[in-house]
Amino acid sequence: MVKVAPSLLAADMLQMGNEIERMAQAGADYLHFDVMDGRFVPNLSYGIPVLKAAAKGSLPVDVHLMIERPERYIDAFAEAGAKIITIHAEATVHLDRALRQIRAAGCLAGVAMNPATSPECLRYVLGAFDLALVMTINPGFGGQKMLESCVQKVADVRRLLDDTGTDAMIEVDGGVNEKTAPKLVQNGATVLVAGSACFGAPDAAAFIRALHACKPM
Ligand code: DX5
Ligand code: ZN
Q1: Which ligand is located closest to the Cα atom of residue 63?
Q2: Where are the beta strands (DSSP E) in 55-166?
Q3: Which atom of ligand 1 is nearest to the CA of 139?
Q4: Which of 40, 66, 138, 144 to mutate to test the pocket of ligand 1 (most atoms within 8 A of CB)?
Q5: Percent of the chain at pLDDT exceeding 90
Q6: Which of 145, 193, 211 gets mutated to test ligand 1 (max ligand atoms within 8 A of its CB)?
Q7: In whole numbers, what is the pLDDT of the chain averaged over residues?
């Protein structure tokens, strides 16, 4: 079954602990934790102390680093309780080394791609990652509309993994809701990140059930 990862960015920050438990109760599989440095993306969010607190909740934390030279902070995020650490292919000149660093720190390793980045960036690091994150918006802000061109990209990543016999999750992030999720899953997505649609849903459990019900082709 496809996994659902609510993005904490859309939660009521004054109620962070309760919001995380609300998502756990509603059936979420991961908590998606977006870190922004104001350089790789034009926005700032939160970092290590907040992760330390969030990781005490009952959901495994999927950390999405939208920061330049993420290798500087991988060990600190692992230490703070990350289960998955995803870095952007565009953010480091040593992608292979940084992915190995994530696994050496005891986490699952993810590679994220901006909308304009070719999935070919995955080809020579196959086997060094556990998750490929296809950004379905330009990263930096929640609440944006999904870019339609990214649906084809999910299919391209699916084909690359299948053709090379690579077992890895395909995560999508940005503008995921009940309307966009089915085609993303049909094209090969296995983890759905949802921020505004999930935290803003009148019934989060029903929303997550609808996403869980999406079936691959
Ligand atoms: C944005 C983040 C996303 C964001 C998604 O750069 O990576 O995880 O929270 O928000 P929605 O689901 O509202 O598009
Ligand atoms: Zn994200």
Answers
A1: 2
A2: 61-66, 84-88, 108-113, 131-135
A3: 6
A4: 144
A5: 100
A6: 193
A7: 98
- Is position 34 annotated as part of the catalytic site? yes
CB atoms closer than 10 angstroms to residue 149: 10
Output the six-digit token pair for 69: 């030279």
Q: What is the residue-wise DSSP string for 135-153?
A: ESS-TT-SSPPPPTHHHHH
Indicate the pTM of the whole model: 0.98
The CATH architecture one would assign to domain 3-212 is Alpha-Beta Barrel (3.20)
Which residues have a Cβ under 8 Å from the Cβ of 141 and sit 6 or more positions away? 43
9-21: pLDDT as tens digits: 999 999 999 999 9
Confidence of residue 215 (pLDDT cuts 50, 70, 90): very high
Give dist(CA 38, CA 49) in Å, integer.
18
For 116, counting Cβ atoms within 10 Å of its Cβ (0-12 exposed, 13-18 middle, 19+ buried), the class is: exposed
d(CA 184, CA 36): 25
Judged against a pLDDT cut of 90, whether residue 217 lies above it is answered with no
Average pLDDT for residues 105-129, to the nearest whole number?
A: 98
